[in-house]
Design a protein that fits this description.
alpha/beta, Rossmann fold, seven-stranded parallel beta sheet, 11 helices, about 45% helix, about 10% strand
Length: about 350
């Protein structure tokens, strides 16, 4: 089966074709750029939700229950579960996704585990492409579960429309929660395992961090309105008098499903807010800019590796830097001039 037929079948959500297309994009097989170009015009319709937080916070269980709740509402769900890479196979270390196996017979849910393959930031390098495949295939929601590496897990903010940051009582020093790198990416905060001692303290820490940050989600534009009792947003856009999105703090028991419906309602309210005030276009522009720059950088370095003249020049410059005959910035500019010109 050629990539053209795989794309055609994937666009009508043929499960096997979707899986094969993801493998083509993830592994950068021959023809993947043509296949990607064919599906890209069909993207931009899914609500991409990133679920991030420290290991042991219950992200997998929460993702499982969110998927079940959206299926109960008649929506289709794609799940990208990013796991540590196995040192033996190079694949996703937790690829079996035991907690989500109940969805395996549901054609409305597609689950893909992928290893980080050494990529930092909580997601894999190919995550963006996998999200686009699921988006083009017509899934209403795409959930990205990050690897669970803690404070460096911020790259999901560049991929998701809505980021839910999961915390849980009893994982050590609660002051870690207010560190800016992670706090700034959260659009929704979920305190899971709320039956544990110390949940009030975690909520208070998050609230304090939000107050210190100025009550604003760093990735949301302003909007005049307020949240209804179920998380729905009411109000109208006003260019002159606006109020920021205040990230809600929700409490859940993902194991039993308690509070999960409210998480879904709040994520939907946030997406509605983004769509109403124009911030969704701005957010997706930032993703496109970041992705384009990353791809350009990869292509430049790939071309450099194939250029004997550039490699020799880079080696000569490196020796000059090592001998302290040239500083690294001067060497970098010299190499840039060689590549660009």
């Amino acid at each position: 089966m050629g990539w053209q037929e795989i794309v055609s079948r994937a666009l009508v959500r043929d499960i096997r074709a979707v899986s094969r297309l993801i493998s083509i994009v993830e592994d950068r097989r021959s023809g993947f750029e043509d296949a990607y170009a064919a599906i890209y015009p069909h993207t931009g319709k899914a609500h991409v939700i990133g679920i991030t937080g420290p290991p042991g916070s219950g992200k997998s269980t929460l993702v499982d229950k969110i998927a079940a709740e959206y299926r109960r509402r008649g929506k289709t769900v794609g799940i990208v579960a990013v796991d540590p890479t196995s040192p033996f196979t190079g694949g996703a270390l937790l690829g079996d996704r035991l907690r989500m196996q109940r969805h395996s017979l549901d054609d409305g849910v597609f689950i893909r585990s992928m290893g980080t393959r050494g990529h930092l930031g909580g997601v894999a390098r190919a995550t963006s492409g996998v999200v686009d495949v699921l988006d083009a295939a017509g899934y209403d929601y795409v959930l990205i579960e990050t690897v669970g590496v803690g404070q460096s897990e911020v790259e999901v903010a560049s991929l998701a429309d809505t980021v839910a940051l999961v915390q849980v009582p009893g994982l050590g020093d609660d002051i870690q929660v207010i560190k800016a790198g992670v706090m700034e990416i959260g659009d929704v905060f979920v305190v899971n395992k709320k039956d544990r001692p110390g949940v009030e303290r975690v909520v208070a820490e998050i609230r304090m961090a939000l107050d210190l940050a100025g009550n604003v989600s760093g990735r949301s534009r302003a909007y005049s309105g307020h949240h209804g009792p179920t998380g729905a947003t009411t109000g109208t856009v006003d260019a002159t008098e606006v109020a920021p999105w205040r990230p809600p703090i929700l409490q859940t028991m993902a194991e039993s499903g308690e509070g999960v419906a409210e998480v879904c309602d709040t994520c939907d309210a946030h997406m509605h807010r983004l769509s109403e005030d124009g911030a969704l276009v701005e957010r997706r522009f930032r993703r496109a800019r970041s992705e384009t720059m990353q791809i350009a950088s990869d292509l430049i370095w790939r071309g450099l590796a194939d250029d004997r003249r550039a490699l020799d020049a880079a080696e000569e410059l490196a020796w000059k830097v090592a001998r302290r005959e040239m500083d690294p910035y001067a060497a970098g500019w010299s190499l840039r001039e060689l590549i660009v010109n």
